[in-house]
Amino acid sequence: MAEHRGRLAFNTQSRDLWHVYQLPIVASSIVSLYFLELTDIFRPAQGGFQCHDRSLSMPYVESNEELIPLLMLLSLAFAAPAASIMIGEGVLYCIQSKLKGRGSSEGSINAGGCNFNSFLRRTVRFVGVHVFGLCATALVTDVIQLATGYHAPFFLTVCKPNYTRLGTSCASNPYITQDICTGNDQQAILSAR
Questions:
Q1: Quick check: 119 and 90 in contact, CB under 8 A?
Q2: What is the pLDDT of residues 100-158, one digit of tens each?
Q3: What is residue 92's predicted lDDT score, i.e. its pLDDT?
Q4: In this structure, is residue 12 part of a structural domain?
Q5: Are residues 56 and 106 in the same domain?
Q6: In a domain, 39, yes or no
Q7: Which GO terms describe its cellular component (predicted)?
Q8: Considering the chain, what is the average pLDDT of its residues?
Q9: In a domain? residue 29
Q10: Residue 80 in contact with residue 73, Cβ under 8 Å?
């Protein structure tokens, strides 16, 4: 009996210690994602490109002409999995509540005087893990894009390079590292870098 209490105390302490590490990780991820996505504090690496590179000359699609708008994409990425998690947890909760008389149902949790049933607790936990995974994926993707400086397929279309500013011909020096962009849309050029 005393051994069981010791194991229970150890599990509670390790769980509390895990929460101490979880909050800074989540908070720093969200703050980093904000600075990467919504500010221009971190500039992309300046990479070079080939003269008249066909793979970088694809057409630029304006945001109002996109096949799937960004708002729809983000709402489906967040809402569809969250809805399926809620439906799955709802079905699991209904099955467990029917089996409650047999002792296999999860109980409610009392936190600060509020009772939370297992459906609400598990749904919030799994949706939270899903949202954290989306944010972590976006963070890693943005860091890799900024660090490598690889150009988007529409880079030359929005950059509109002035090859005469090079001082040499493209035949003698086909790889360009200077900034010779003459395009007007600086936001599109920055997003293409």
A1: yes
A2: 755 555 666 666 666 667 778 888 888 888 888 888 888 888 778 777 777 878 877 87
A3: 85
A4: no
A5: no
A6: no
A7: plasma membrane
A8: 74
A9: no
A10: no
Tokens linked to 88: 């799955």
> How far is the C-alpha of 137 from the C-alpha of 131, rounded, in Å?
10
Q: Retrieve residue 164's tokens.
A: 């005469």
DSSP 115: E
Provide the strand spans (E) within the chain.
49-50, 109-111, 114-116, 175-176
Which tens digits make up the pLDDT trace of 180-191? Answer: 777 777 777 777
At 110 the pLDDT is 65
Task: Look at residue 84 in the predicted model and tell me its pLDDT.
Answer: 92
Residues 6+ apart with CB under 8 A from 78: 131, 134
Q: What is the pTM of this model?
A: 0.62
Q: Which domain holds residue 181?
A: 44-60+154-193
Residue 51 tokens read as 């003269």
Q: For 19-34, b where at least 16 C-beta lie within 10 A, e where not — what string? A: eeeeeeeeeebeeebe
Q: Can you tell me the distance from the alpha carbon of 104 to that of 95, in angstroms, rounded to the nearest whole number?
A: 10
DSSP letters, 47-71, are --EETT-GGG-PPPPPGGG-SS-HH
Those residues whose C-beta lies under 8 Å from the C-beta of residue 88, and which sit 6 or more positions away, are: none
Q: What is the DSSP letter of 185?
A: -
Structure token digits, residue 59: 């057409």
Tokens describing residue 147:
């660090």
Under 8 Å between Cβ of 47 and 159: no
